[in-house]
Specification:
Length: about 375
């Protein structure tokens, strides 16, 4: 049975859940949510991020590892009352603090577990235990066509949820996730120019290949690139994460970037002497932008602003340096605001000149 819901990026799903939480706090909407999506698309990261944003404790239940009695709790006989009562399981929220109950791998859970989950999703209760009003319930799972272990979702379960299909979107990931997550500059630069290799699950299934590129696998490649690993071992690690073909193309670019991008040197070099340090091509300049995001601190923010502003002056035929500089400023401003460093923009002559030029050109 197809899931006839709207497809959204990870950033789009996160925004919907932000609004769902706000509506629930206002008493306007209390519902349970379902994130469908291929393995590695970022469903768990969305839940972790919304929990962090709203200051909620995250109760992460992997439904493939539990039995119905694990949700109901442990029974014992109350001799005074003459009845069997239940100890509530610690995996269910019970308190005044904000919480998220994350029912992961819902579509892979045993069908025998579904009746127990029905009550959580619709009535927000299991047995006599009722979830507090400050609990946001979100489920997630893969679809049958994703090549993962999954059961068809019956109508009795489906009707208890508001559904979204999360799909990989390289632009959304690079703009809203990569910088804050510390994604390695070579990974960001590669995916900026090869977004077609951001998520290749469908192609891998068609070819009968076990390894596919996914947002999760590229995050793992980023972790590998941050290690001080000899080149032969690094090649094996990356190929085992995204497949040989994608790894070969990526590693060629990564070696080129490592030889030409000098982020720390640019931050420490006087402004008048920086021009010769700018990379020669689009890959290098893109890696420079993401490298700045990862390396910048409060004290080096003025230098980072100067580097992006001066990017307009470099001569790189065929490279959209102005657009790349603007993209870099969008990311750097977001990074500054997250850390309380935005005052550096108000006092920067380079940024003021950049804004004046854009205004003169009729650009926002």
């Amino acid at each position: 049975m197809a899931v006839n819901a709207t497809r959204v990026s990870a950033g789009g799903a996160l925004d919907v859940l932000r609004r769902a939480w706000a509506a629930q706090q206002d008493g306007g909407l209390t519902s349970s949510w379902m994130l469908h999506g291929r393995p590695g698309v970022g469903k768990s990261e969305i839940i972790a991020q919304i929990a962090d944003e709203i200051g909620a404790e995250l109760y992460d239940l992997r439904l493939t590892t539990i039995e119905p009695q694990d949700l109901r709790g442990l029974p014992f006989y109350d001799h005074d009352a003459g009845k069997t009562v239940w100890y509530r399981p610690e995996d269910l929220p019970d308190g005044d603090a904000p919480a998220i109950l994350f029912l992961d791998e819902l579509t892979a859970a045993a069908p025998s577990l579904q009746p127990t989950v029905y009550g959580l999703l619709q009535e927000r209760r299991v047995g006599r235990h009722v979830l507090p009003s400050n609990v946001l319930i979100v489920a997630a799972g893969n679809m049958v066509e994703d090549g993962a272990v999954a059961y068809e979702m019956g109508t009795a379960l489906s009707d208890r949820l508001i559904h979204m299909i999360v799909q990989a979107d390289a632009e959304d990931w690079l703009k809203n996730y990569a910088g804050a997550a510390g994604i390695h500059p070579s990974v960001a630069a590669f995916l900026k120019t090869r977004p077609d290799l951001f998520e290749t699950t469908e192609s891998a299934l068609r070819k009968g290949e076990a390894i596919a590129c996914t947002p999760r696998s590229w995050r793992r490649v980023s972790d590998i690139m941050h290690l001080n690993t000899p080149k032969p071992a690094r090649q094996v690690m990356v190929a085992g994460t995204v497949g040989e073909a994608a790894a070969a193309e990526f590693l060629l670019l990564a070696d080129e970037i490592a030889a030409t991008v000098q982020v720390e040197a640019m931050l420490q070099t006087p402004r008048a002497d920086r021009m010769e340090l700018y990379p020669a091509n689009l890959h290098g300049l893109t890696a420079l932008v993401y490298g700045l995001l990862g390396a910048v601190k409060a004290e080096t923010m003025p230098a980072a602003i100067d580097i992006l502003a001066d990017m307009r002056q470099i001569d790189r035929p065929g490279v959209p340096v102005a657009e790349l500089g603007t993209f870099g400023f969008e990311l750097l401003i977001a990074r500054a605001m997250d850390n309380g460093w935005q005052a550096a923009f108000a006092t920067s002559e380079a940024f003021a000149a950049y804004q004046s030029e854009r205004a003169a050109a009729g650009l926002p």
